[in-house]
């Protein structure tokens, strides 16, 4: 529906071009009086609420009847009850607003007009007493409807309901042209990717045949040398000996000898070892390729939402943007030597924009097509650390969290962090929400900066989690929390440090993972109500913290196009990191990059198996391991999951891409 206004303008242009001036004027007039409001839920709700504020009950009901005939009556019968509840709530909101404005005559007028129709309806039996209640806001029968939370929940629910209807409407051909073009472009990209993959497989097959022939030749030479050695031994054993005349065995039989070339030359970490015995393996993985684009440990890695590109940042604060599907496009390298890169995110609607946040107040917007930073957002100097970035799936909007330079400042100050929404179309800051100690709930835990941010499917709400265990659901239009609770009292392991919070696919619940490895499911309708809890076996892994755990470099010769593992010593800025010895490997101080859900939230991938060197897929409904991915040589620091691709990134700079067939 985003193309409606654009198509309207095209129609006007066409009418003028053809000289249909009368039709043009009529069309323009009807556009101005458009009751459908361009299929924008915001404007429809604004029109409904304008009748409420003006106490125009006739206009309100007429407009609702229009919506009912135009849209609601075409829905399946199972939605009729929901439509009826929305109508009842809308009329109740009209009565509540009239009461708040002390316009009792409008309430009496409503019941005089519609009282006979509503009489006998159990939904309205108590409401006949509304005009006679001295203080309805404290009356048990009405107090719920006078709360700000009820009005906001009704507003959001109606908005989501209308949006869902518009998104599932059958579109005319004129509006489908853009969708068809995007779909055709995606299919062309997929065909090119498959062709490139076929060429790569052919090359691998030829190289494999050559290697097999070489190994067979070596094996033949070894066998030939071995046979000659056996003949020499047999000749020597049949020659009389003066010194050895006791019962020695001289029958010439020799024990088998194993030569190095008779064995596989593949390192053990690259072998396809089946370590998934007893697992259900719900995914068919077609390939698990290893890429060596980074030259030092990867701190965060993200797949673009269209699944073609990977952006990976290492401890040297160098971001590399590269294509893993065999494209000829060169790797893009972004150096950021003045600050530490803390967060990374692709713009959700294309592969064009990459956003990254630092610990020096900056969020940079990089355009891959122009190969330049097109804008630089600056955060509040009180919260310079951009911990997390999340992009709206439907708008040119993103949200980020800010925190003080040092965590001690977050604990001691009255303002402990911020949540900011920014517009990529106007390149401006839209709203800011500041965490203050005065807004602390009943929990005795101090407020901490926000660590995780996720939008819902239509970008109207987002959920956040922090290190003190607070879950908050925000209305994105006002950036105010509509729900908030703390998980610490319900955690079986006593941990409140949240490393992932995510809306379920149906958005009736929130999945939360804490740093003790507990996966919990919370109702998004009843704040603080936990629906299920389970333990993710193997997560979080125990990460190595001493130099004795450094894995040596591989002795295999790497091709010039690949990157080798550098010295453990990093150029990463240490302005906010305690000094460590040079031989100590980088250890991530956050487990947020170590968890990723798939699109329908039925599964998630975590850093888990084989001492933290392996990605593990879990089922969210049970928390059980269902599949494992190939291991790396060193422990993992980041994972991501986008459509049919999973990436795992490790401390040695390697990134493994696990690909599944399109469903």
Please give the structural blueprint:
Blueprint: H1 4-18, H2 21-32, H3 41-53, H4 57-70, H5 80-100, H6 104-118, H7 148-167, H8 173-238, E1 287-291, E2 298-303, E3 309-314, E4 318-323, E5 332-335, E6 341-346, E7 353-358, E8 362-367, E9 372-378, E10 385-391, E11 397-403, H9 407-412, E12 415-423, E13 428-436, E14 450-455, E15 461-466, E16 470-475, E17 480-486, E18 498-503, E19 509-514, E20 518-523, E21 530-535, E22 595-597, E23 603-607, H10 609-612, E24 614-619, E25 625-631, E26 636-642, E27 645-650, E28 655-659
Antiparallel strand pairs: 1-28, 2-3, 3-4, 4-5, 6-7, 7-8, 8-9, 10-11, 11-12, 12-13, 14-15, 15-16, 16-17, 18-19, 19-20, 20-21, 22-23, 23-24, 24-25, 26-27, 27-28
Helix pairs in contact: 1-2, 3-4, 3-5
Protein name: WD repeat-containing protein 91 isoform X2
WD repeats: 291-332, 629-663
Region (Disordered): 216-257
Structure, explained:
This protein has about 675 residues and is of the alpha+beta class. The protein has 2 domains: about 35-170, no CATH class; about 280-660, YVTN repeat-like/Quinoprotein amine dehydrogenase (Methylamine Dehydrogenase, Chain H, 7 Propeller), CATH 2.130.10.10. About 30% of the residues lie in helices and about 25% in strands. It is built from 10 helices and 28 strands. It has helices at about 5-20, 20-30, 40-55, 55-70, 80-100, 105-120, 150-165, 175-240, 405-410, 610; strands at about 285-290, 300-305, 310-315, 320-325, 330-335, 340-345, 355-360, 360-365, 370-380, 385-390, 395-405, 415-425, 430-435, 450-455, 460-465, 470-475, 480-485, 500-505, 510-515, 520-525, 530-535, 595, 605, 615-620, 625-630, 635-640, 645-650, 655-660. The chain has a 4-stranded antiparallel β-sheet with strand order 1-28-27-26, with no helix packed on it. Strands 2-3-4-5 form a 4-stranded antiparallel β-sheet, with no helix packed on it. The chain has a 4-stranded antiparallel β-sheet with strand order 6-7-8-9, with no helix packed on it. Strand 2 (about 300-305) and strand 3 (about 310-315) form a beta hairpin. Helix 1 (about 5-20) packs antiparallel against helix 2, helix 3 packs antiparallel against helix 4 and helix 3 crosses helix 5 (about 80-100). The longest helix is centred in the N-terminal third of the chain and has 66 residues, at about 175-240. The radius of gyration is 32 Å and the shape is globular. The relative contact order is 0.08.
């Amino acid at each position: 529906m985003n193309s409606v206004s654009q198509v309207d303008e095209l129609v006007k242009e066409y009418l003028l071009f053809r000289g249909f001036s009368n039709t043009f004027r009529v069309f323009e007039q009807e556009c101005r009086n458009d009751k459908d409001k361009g299929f924008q839920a915001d404007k429809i709700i604004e029109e409904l609420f304008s009748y409420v504020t003006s106490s125009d009950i006739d206009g309100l009901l007429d407009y609702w009847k229009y919506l009912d005939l135009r849209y609601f009556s075409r829905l399946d019968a199972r939605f009729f009850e929901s439509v009826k509840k929305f109508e009842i709530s809308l009329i109740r909101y009209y009565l509540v607003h009239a009461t708040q404005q002390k316009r009792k005559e409008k309430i009496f007028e409503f019941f005089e007009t519609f009282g006979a129709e509503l009489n006998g309806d159990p939904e309205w039996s108590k409401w006949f007493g509304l005009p006679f209640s001295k203080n309805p806001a404290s009356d048990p029968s009405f107090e719920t409807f006078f709360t700000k939370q009820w009005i906001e929940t009704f507003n959001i629910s109606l908005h989501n309901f209308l949006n869902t209807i518009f998104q599932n409407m059958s579109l005319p051909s004129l509006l489908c042209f853009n969708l068809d073009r995007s779909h055709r472009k995606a299919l062309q990209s997929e065909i090119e990717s498959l062709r490139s993959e076929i060429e790569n497989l052919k090359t691998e097959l030829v190289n494999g045949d050559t290697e097999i022939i070489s190994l067979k030749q070596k094996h033949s030479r070894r066998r030939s040398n071995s046979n000659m050695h056996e003949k020499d031994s047999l000749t020597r054993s049949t020659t009389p000996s003066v010194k050895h005349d006791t019962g020695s065995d001289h029958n010439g039989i020799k024990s088998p000898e194993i030569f190095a070339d008779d064995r596989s030359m593949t390192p053990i970490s690259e072998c396809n070892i089946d370590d998934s015995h007893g697992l259900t393996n719900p995914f068919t993985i077609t390939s698990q390729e290893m890429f060596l684009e980074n030259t030092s440990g990867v701190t965060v890695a993200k797949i673009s939402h269209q699944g073609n590109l990977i952006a990976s940042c290492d401890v040297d604060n160098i971001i590399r943007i590269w294509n893993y599907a065999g494209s000829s496009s060169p790797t893009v390298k972004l150096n950021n030597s003045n600050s530490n890169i803390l967060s990374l995110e692709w713009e959700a609607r294309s592969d064009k924009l990459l956003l990254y946040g630092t610990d020096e107040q900056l969020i940079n917007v990089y355009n891959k097509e122009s190969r330049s930073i097109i804008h630089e957002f600056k955060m509040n100097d009180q919260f310079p650390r951009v911990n997390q970035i999340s992009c709206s799936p439907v708008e040119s909007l993103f949200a980020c969290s800010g925190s003080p330079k040092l965590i001690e400042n977050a604990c001691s100050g009255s303002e402990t962090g911020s949540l900011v929404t920014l517009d990529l179309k106007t390149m401006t800051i839209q709203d800011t929400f500041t965490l203050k100690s005065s807004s602390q709930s009943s929990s005795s835990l101090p407020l901490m900066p926000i660590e995780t941010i996720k939008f819902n499917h239509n970008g109207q709400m987002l959920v956040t989690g922090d290190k003190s265990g607070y879950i908050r659901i925000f209305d994105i239009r006002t950036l105010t929390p509509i729900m908030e609770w703390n998980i610490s009292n319900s955690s079986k392991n006593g941990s409140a440090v949240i490393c992932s919070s995510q809306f379920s696919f149906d958005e009736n619940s929130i999945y939360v993972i804490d740093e003790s490895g507990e996966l919990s499911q919370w109702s998004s309708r009843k704040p603080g109500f936990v629906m299920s809890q389970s333990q993710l076996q193997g997560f979080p892994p125990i990460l190595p913290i001493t130099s004795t755990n450094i894995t040596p470099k591989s002795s295999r010769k790497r091709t010039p196009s690949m990157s080798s593992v550098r010295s453990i010593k990093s150029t990463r800025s240490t302005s906010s990191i305690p000094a460590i010895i040079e031989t100590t490997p980088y250890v991530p101080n956050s487990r947020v990059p170590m968890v990723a859900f798939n699109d329908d939230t039925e599964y998630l991938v975590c850093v888990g198996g084989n001492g933290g060197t392996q990605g593990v897929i879990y089922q969210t409904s049970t928390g059980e391991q269902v599949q494992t991915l190939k291991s790396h040589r060193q422990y993992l620091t980041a994972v991501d999951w986008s459509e049919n691709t999973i990436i795992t990134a490790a401390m040695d700079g390697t990134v493994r891409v696990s690909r599944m067939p399109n469903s």
